[in-house]
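One thing: can you check what follows?
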Amino acid sequence: MQGRGFFLRGELISIDGHGAALQWRIPLPLGEKVEVELAEENEARTFRVAWRGKRGTPEETQAGLEFVDANESWNVEALVARWGIGEL
């Protein structure tokens, strides 16, 4: 998957201060670096695929992402308030 950039829309499964779990249309390899931009944000953040679903299962296209920069994090409280949900 390295070489050419491409856009892929995914579905957010969960999010915390250290990263996120997403569902994609294709499986992502472990260690792959990806940029993620949440809807309504104008800033892409860089992550590394830390885990992925087991091949041959419905979870195969799920991936757990962690920030490449360990000092970076989501502002979870602001996201909860913006999205109008009780808890993440």
User: Anything to note?
Assistant: The beta strands are 11-16, 19-23, 33-36, 45-52, 62-67.
